[in-house]
Write a structure and sequence with these properties.
Mean pLDDT: 95
Number of helices: 8
Largest sheet: 4 strands, mixed
Strand content: 5-15%
Shape: globular
Low-confidence stretches: none
Distance between the termini: 44 Å
Helix content: 55-70%
Length: 214
Amino acid sequence: MALTLYYHPLSSFCWKALIALYECRAEFTPRLINLGDPQDAAAFKAIWPVRKFPVLQDGERFVPESSIIIEYLAQRYPGPSKLIPDDPDAALNVRLMDRVLDLHVHLPMQKFTVDVLRPAGAKDPMGVEHARETLRTSYALLNTQVAAWAVGESFTMADCAAFPALHYANIAEPIGAENTRLLAYVERLKARPSIARVFKEAEPYFHMLPVKPK
């Protein structure tokens, strides 16, 4: 059954799903959704009412949420990369790191984009500063945790989550030079073929980013 990914090329959570699809070598059709287009927005709302990217379609089934998409791919379309380990304890560690990256890097990173898009007089400087503090704390934590990959010596779902979150977060709140292990890990991620492919495919859209590198 052919897969379809409903996505936006600049969405960090869509990058996460795309990396997993390329790691699994699953054949799929990318369906770019422009929420600024009323027809696109209405069609996507009919698929997933909360209108959050990404959503994977497999026949009549729609699978939302990037982590659940990766779990689904690992079950139904396993590839060379074991994104979810068979060992229950190892799998739990991967899921934990995936949650850490999503909740404590991905989400605070998005605070910067939301604040830039707010109209004058509606900015949230306190919220932005809290997001910066969260990112700095998360960088320090990750610097003590990462090994060859996010969890041990194998590329997993946690690594799919790591690059998009850290790439965009580093633009808003740069990873400090003191986090040497984390910075080296980010460089390894960049060199991963699946990640390099996702990044290259997104490059034509970078001019649309609301938050620019310092």
